[in-house]
Design a protein that fits this description.
The protein is 38% helix and 22% strand. By secondary structure, it is an alpha+beta fold. The longest helix has 27 residues. It is globular.
């Protein structure tokens, strides 16, 4: 399949706001790709580079070679070239990488060059996000969407599922199961403004709800196969070598094979959570692990059991999974948890957890299966303040005491229909000098263009924002603006695709 065919499909999807039309355009491209190219095409049309990063920034693609007159590069050829570029390292690697980029882009037409540059720099926005892509895979392979969704949940990524569905249909999808050592998509929590609202969503008559403490740590999925333990983040990155104390803890559990869901968090000597940035520092690099472990040790807290010794537990009701978990994990490593038979009981637990320094609670339906990769009424999080996870779209150079630093950040919520981000306002509040220095370096790395004192950036960095309310505003495209927005922390554990949506913002306004 030619890269030009992917570009055409992306343009067709971008040209419409209709979910059905987007799905049809993507499905047609997947059918044309066939099993051999489907995984790569699915990734490209989701705006994802399979290699994730190849060491090339927008500056390295600012000047491109003369374009080819006619399309000739296949998807497979482009994918191989990008893999080769990403593998370049050592002395003289910058020059070698630049030469390889020039060679690749000289084979592409102008439209293909523009598309691939956007793909490499994370700026493909045609709205083929998960919902559209899953529906498109189902349509292309003529299989039920539910089968595709479950397979993607278990495989972690859409690309391999697309290839399997096109090659073998429902039978091939059914063969995709939970594999110890391969991360699956984590179950996510919806949001509610208070415990009463969460109770209404999650409570089961006669059973009430299960209420977990929401810890301000790093989401971890631990896989053990004998003496081999692998640790994955919520974005499915492998950080095993960065948390040796968690590996040691998992190895003490009385099971040979397991998959377990939880958090890792740094605590002070009184057992209260230390600032999130300290916990996050443990996942940033594999260098200096021993020194970091000595100064910022983390404690694991587990809250769900997905597999143990050959038995998958995903489809069991939550209470059964939690009982199996409690029989396996010592109490000090279990997340704070209670069963509440009334909203008042759940509220009392919420206030106790918040007073202990935690983020809030997650109210869970006792009958819910583990719905990986989805938000729903099964899990509902409640925090004591209004917060949103938004994406930074641009940053303004500061003035006065902030001269020389990037300061005022432009905030965007994700539009699930288009894949774009809708601006909700700006803020420079809540930033320490340390944060200002960090974000200046970070956003210059993500820079795509400048206009006056505004630096536009790739929409990648997620930031948690606290606010006092949402007001109607004609100033911003979404018709809404955050009141008294302030930075709580930057979320390196979340991708832009996990940012809150404009629908969530609208629901909080009402």
């Amino acid at each position: 399949m030619l890269l030009a065919d992917v570009v055409a499909a992306s343009r067709a999807a971008s040209a419409t706001r209709s979910r059905l039309a987007k799905t049809a355009a993507v499905a047609q491209a997947l059918r044309a790709a066939g099993p051999d190219d489907a995984a790569t095409v699915a990734a490209y049309l989701s705006g994802v580079l399979p290699q994730r990063r190849i060491g090339v920034s927008w500056r390295g693609l600012a000047t491109l070679p003369d374009a080819a007159d006619e399309p000739s590069a296949t998807v497979a050829e482009v994918d191989r070239a990008l893999t080769t570029i990403g593998a370049v390292s050592g002395s003289g690697s910058a020059a070698t990488r630049a030469a390889a980029v020039t060679e690749l882009f000289s084979r592409l037409t102008r439209d293909e060059q523009d598309y691939l540059r956007d793909l490499v720099t994370g700026q493909v926005r045609q709205g083929a996000l998960d919902g559209v892509m899953l529906a498109a895979v189902a349509a292309a392979a003529q299989v039920p969407e539910a089968e595709v969704r479950r397979a993607v949940m278990l495989a972690g990524h859409t690309g391999p599922v697309a290839a399997a569905a096109l090659a073998g249909g429902s039978e091939a999808l059914a063969a995709i199961g939970l594999e110890v050592g391969r991360p699956l998509r984590p179950m996510l929590a919806a949001s509610a403004p208070d415990v009463d609202a969460a109770w209404e969503q999650a409570a089961v008559e006669g059973l009430g709800v299960v209420v977990d403490g929401k810890l301000d740590g790093i989401r971890l999925q631990a896989h053990r196969d004998g003496a081999d333990v692998r640790l994955f983040t919520r974005s499915l990155d492998d950080i095993t070598d960065r948390l040796p104390e968690v590996v040691e803890a998992v190895l003490t559990l009385p099971a040979e094979r397991l998959v377990i869901d939880g958090e890792a968090i740094a605590l002070d000597t009184a057992g209260r959570p230390r600032p999130f940035q300290e916990t996050a520092s443990r996942t940033m690099s594999s260098t200096g692990v021993d020194e970091l472990r000595a100064t910022v040790p983390v404690t694991p807290y587990f809250f769900d059991l997905l597999h143990v010794d050959g038995e998958d537990l995903l489809d069991l009701p939550a209470t059964q999974r939690f009982q199996r978990l409690a029989a396996l994990v010592p109490p000090p490593w279990l997340v704070p948890r209670t069963t509440a038979t009334s909203a008042a009981e759940a509220g009392e637990f919420f206030h106790r957890l918040v007073s202990d320094g935690h983020e809030g609670v997650v109210v869970k339906s006792p009958s819910a299966p583990y719905a990986a990769g989805r938000r729903g009424a099964g899990w509902v999080k409640v925090k004591p303040r209004h917060t949103l996870d938004l994406v930074v779209l641009a940053v303004e150079w500061g003035s006065g005491r902030r001269q020389g630093w990037l300061s005022n950040i432009h905030l965007g919520a994700r539009d699930p229909g288009t894949g774009d981000f809708v601006m909700l306002g700006k803020t420079f509040k809540g930033m320490t000098d340390e944060v200002l220095a960090w974000q200046t370096a970070r956003f210059l790395e993500l820079e795509t263009s400048r206009r006056g004192h505004v630096v536009h950036v790739r929409p990648e960095q997620v930031v948690e924002i606290a606010f006092d309310g949402i007001q109607t505003s004609s100033r911003y495209p979404g018709g809404m603006a955050l009141r008294f927005a302030r930075v709580i922390r930057y979320r390196d554990d979340k991708t832009a695709s996990e940012a809150d949506t404009v629908d969530t913002v609208r629901s909080l306004r009402s």
